[in-house]
Structures are given as structure tokens and as C-alpha cells.
Amino acid sequence: MRPTLFSQYFKIDPSDLDDAGFLDPFVNVDLPLFIDPLLLAKSSNELIATEGLDAFRTHFEQLVRLLSMSERENDAAWRAAEKHLSLKEPPENGLGYGRRGRSGSSRPERIRKQVLRTTREIIKLGSKDPEMISLMSFLEEEVGPDTISDLTTRALSDQLCQATSRFCAKRGIKLEGDNGLGHALPVYAREDGHTKPMILVPKDIVRHLPMTDSWADVWAAAEHNRALRDRVNTLLGGIVEPTVKEQKAAVREAVLQSATIFDQFLNAVKQAASHYDQNEDIFGYYAFRDELIKSGSVTKTASYDTRKVPEEIYRVVIDALSVFQHHVENGNLWEALWVGNTPKRERASQLLFFAISDAYCRAHDIDLSAEPNMGGGPVDFKFSTGYSARVLVEMKRSGGTVEHGYTKQLEFYKKAASSDYAIFVVIDYGDAGRKIRNIRKVRDFQLGQGKRASDIFVIDARKKASASKRQ
Question: pLDDT tens string for the chain (471 positions)?
């Protein structure tokens, strides 16, 4: 599946969305971002900061009232609260963990019960701030920021729809009603024939969606409350590397000591909340978007007969990798792979490579799949024409599990895909140590045994001087 931006699909200038303060989402895949309800009051979008915030608070105030009335689980008030707390994923905003499409789904019923039980426990302490819902991802093992984002989206759906309709109407984008949301909205027609309404989201109410919960976020929120920090440390005891489950359990016990401590923690989180930083661009979304927009101008640069053998697909992939390598090593694209002095997550380099390789695939009629599950797990990329001509690409940061990725992971993917053609890409941030040398030794040994070995492609992503200062 090729990611397509809202601006590309509806043929508008991407700067229109930027100027209006909206994300330019993909119409067919999800962004790794989530709506943080604690950012609503800080939004520059007046509709969201006023009516949207009111809608959110009213929605969860009602939940608090219902749970305050409930005397036991499964009584009338509890059942009403269950109905009120919908966990169905809204498919319209394009945010979350989805990687191969945008389709709403319901979460397990036990997660709803977890949230309700914890909310009622907080209410019994004496705290009734409806924004308590935003802390559930700190307190409950199976509740992540994507769940909170979906709950928030449903609470202010009316305001998000209004803002989207107004923006699109001014720019002549066709709007369609009869979607169950009460507003005429732009519609994306999927390849399977189904249609999906689209909702635009202000840039300043979203944060990055962590693949695992960040322990640093807890400390940042509690930095002014030494008693809370000490209590959490005591609960964790001598655990050297606490799991997410252990971390959440410790925080839960610490903040649920009293309404005062809970409210202090909630207020600290509110103050610390900040939206996704376009300058840091930790997931490379903005860099990816810009490359995707530019890639529309890429045309055929060489002659490939991709109908014949995997070797021709392989040539296309190597050429795309070479272009990516050139821009990182000789241009300024390396800047999109760093946050200050910290390398970005693998997702950033994967997105940028996807944007470049997608242009080649469009020009030469090659199918490009991102993270297709071939039976042995999701490989990063699969390039193919027909059934038998397949080339796999796995990409790793130099500080990650390079040796395991090359010797074990990629081999599983090759067997699952019934393909001997694979390329292992290492994004070298200068912290590889002996890893690259070790996997090259493995490859040389396999070749010496007369076996086919996956190729290794190293891209130097270390920080570089500006072009004007390079010799």
C-alpha cells in the first residue's frame, strides 16, 4: 500500500493545511500520533479550545456522575457508564498504530472495565476532574495513549467535523453526508470499493505515539513532587530495568494514595503536556511528507525489465537505496534522522526510504508493501511483481539488534516469503561498534560455503557539517 497524503488525494496545496493549523494526514495509513486531551485548552484553533474542550469535559463529567451513582459493578448506573465509554476506534482521524490501512476496531471488553474501575477508584478518593481520563495510560497496563486519543476523538467529534467541513468548503473539496457523523465530510474511496469519511486534526493537539510507554514522561510530570518520586522508587525497589507493567503498577499505587496526590500529579502532567514538535520531528513525519510530495516529480531514470526475474527488481531497490544514501550522506537528509544529539527511531528512516522508493515503484509498476506479514512476522518492505519476483528489505539502526536482525530475523522473513533476495540496511549513527563487521563476516562465511547470503547496505547517518563547510 502506498501512503497518500490528504493534500495529494484531494489535490490541494499542502501549505493550505499548514496555514490553517491542520495535519496533512494520510488517507490510507495511520500516523503514529495521538490526540492528547490535555492539549485542547492550549490549541490555537478557537473552536477546539472552547467548544471542543467543553464537549470533552461534559462527556467525561457525565461518566464521572454515572460512576459516582454506581454502588456496585453491573448495576444500572455501571451499565450506563459502560455504554457511555465507547472504545471503538474512530477510523476517521487516521491516528494510531495502524500500519497497513485505516480501519476502526473495538478493544477488548476488559480494557473498558479497567478504565471504569480505576475511574471509580479515583472518584472515591475525592477527585472528580474529568481530565483524569488522560492519566489512564500511566496507570493501566493495557491502556495506551492511542486508547485515550480515541476516547477524546469521540468526545469532540462534532467540533472536529465542523472544523474539517469549514476548511474543505472554502477550498472546493467535495463533501458528502450520510456518514453517521452528522456533518458533510470529505470522503476517501478505498481500493476495496468502500468509502471512509475524513476528519482533519489540528497539529497542536497531537503528540507522538510511543511504541512503548515512556518512563521519562512519568518523571517529567512528577519532578516537582519529591514525595511522589520517592514513593514510586520505593515501590520499584531494586528492580534494575522495570517492565512497563511494573512501572504502571508503581505509579498507580503512588498516585492513588489520596485525592491531593492524584490532583497534584494530574496538574503536573497538564503543565508538562506539549504537542508534536515539527522541528524535532521524532518520527520523521514532516520529513517523510516533504519527500513524498517531492517524489511525485521522479520519473524513470533507468531501463528495467521488471517482468522477468527478481534480479531486475533488485536493481530497482538498489538504485532507490543509493538515492536515499546519497541524500543522507552528501545532502542534508541526515538532519531528519536526528533529534538534537539523539538518533531517531527506526520509523523515521523507514518512512523516508519509503517515500523515495515509492517514486521508483510508481515509475516502474512495482508493488511496494510496507511491513507485510509474510507468516514469520512483518518485514519492513517487500518489492514485487507477480508472485515469484520478490525482494525484501529490512532496516535497522546501528544501535539496535543488528546481528540478530541479519542472522535470524531476515532469514525467517526470507523463508516465509519464499525469496532468496533480501537486503539488510544498517542506518549507521556511529554507535555500531563491531556489529557491521560481524555481520559482514557472517555473509562472507556463507558465500564461502557456496550459499546465497543477504546483501548488506550501510548508510552513514552520522552528523555532518553543513554543505558550505565540507571540503
Answer: 567 889 989 999 999 999 999 999 888 777 778 898 989 999 999 999 999 999 999 999 999 999 999 999 999 999 999 999 987 766 577 787 543 344 444 567 888 898 999 999 999 989 888 888 888 877 777 787 888 888 899 999 999 999 999 999 999 999 998 778 889 999 998 777 788 899 999 999 998 765 444 445 555 555 555 666 666 666 666 565 667 677 777 778 888 888 888 888 888 778 777 888 877 777 777 877 877 777 654 444 556 665 557 888 888 899 889 989 988 998 888 988 988 888 888 888 888 888 788 777 877 778 888 766 545 556 788 898 877 788 999 999 999 899 999 999 898 888 888 888 899 999 999 999 899 999 999 999 999 998 889 999 999 999 987 555 555
From 170, 185, 209, give the residue that closes a domain.
209
Residues 31 and 132 in one domain: yes
Give me the residue label for grid cell 516465509.
416
Residue that is last in its domain, among 175, 209, 243: 209
C-alpha cell at 139: 496507570
To which residue does cell 516533504 refer?
Answer: 290
Angle between helices 53-69 and 109-125 (to 10 degrees): 80
- 182 and 313 together in one domain: no
Stated pTM of the model: 0.71
299 Cβ contact partners less than 8 Å away, ≥ 6 residues apart? 363
Q: Which domain holds residue 306?
A: 285-469
Amino acid occupying residue 263: D
- The number of residues making up the chain comes to 471
